[in-house]
Amino acid sequence: MRLFTKLSSKNILKISFFAFVFSALTPCFSQAARPDALKLYKAGNYKEAIRVCQDELNDSSRGTAKAIESYVVLCWSLVANKQYREAEKCAAQARQLSSYDARLLEIQAESKFYLEKYDEAMNLLQQYVVIPNADKKGSQRIGLSYYMMGEIYIRQKKWEHADIAISKAVDTEPGMSFWWSKLGYAREQAGYYQDAIVAYNKAISLNASSSDDARRGLVRCQAKLNP
Fold first, then answer.
1. What band does 100 get if pLDDT is binned at 50, 70 and 90?
2. Residue 191 and residue 220 in contact, taking contact as beta carbons nearer than 8 Å
3. What was the pLDDT predicted at 144?
4. How far apart are CA 93 and CA 98, in angstroms?
5. At what angle do helices 177-190 and 159-172 cross, to 10 degrees?
6. How distant, in Å, are the alpha carbons of 74, 84, 103, 182 from that of 98?
7. Which of 27-36, 124-133, 203-212 is predicted least confidently?
8. pTM attached to this predicted model
9. Torsion angle, CA of 80/82/88/89, rounded to 10 degrees?
10. In sequence order, which residues have a C-beta less than 8 Å from that of residue 125 and are 6 or more positions away?
11. Using alpha carbons only, how large is the chain's radius of gyration in Å?
């Protein structure tokens, strides 16, 4: 009791002020200490990115805009970790907050593609690819979207549609050997053997060590042109 009686009113005010400042800044320090989920995702640490995003979404003080960003990284991480059903569910929840976010539209399509819900995936992909680039917010998945469309067309045996879609994919990302091989296959099935040879050769030139499908396709097309 003597200690408190010796404290002046001025000192008490100082202590109260610093206590208030500390309590006000504590949430800021806590948030600053939280790992960056996007950096974790880009580093391939998908499980940790998922955990961080889930923690962020459990923080009701962050607001809708920040929640959407957490949902986007969470969905990307779930797909990268091959948790497709969880990604599909997550994307659907996120789009209830922002139905027009192009990134969420694409990731919902991607999750449905891997779950072999091809009609639903195609509908979403067709919506995504026509969105102006300025509205895609750096999603950078336009090439992948066209490739997935091409894969769906291949499974539907719509060879010319597949040719068009995968051609757009490789125009966007020309270094994808596997995509070139698939383009060759679509062209071969459509009967465009010379164009298929071009695509197969491109696949082989990009990745000579793992282009067995492209080499076999090349031999088939050459046999068709030179019976």
1. confident
2. no
3. 95
4. 9
5. 150
6. 15, 20, 10, 34
7. 27-36
8. 0.81
9. -110
10. 106, 109, 113, 145, 148, 149, 152
11. 26
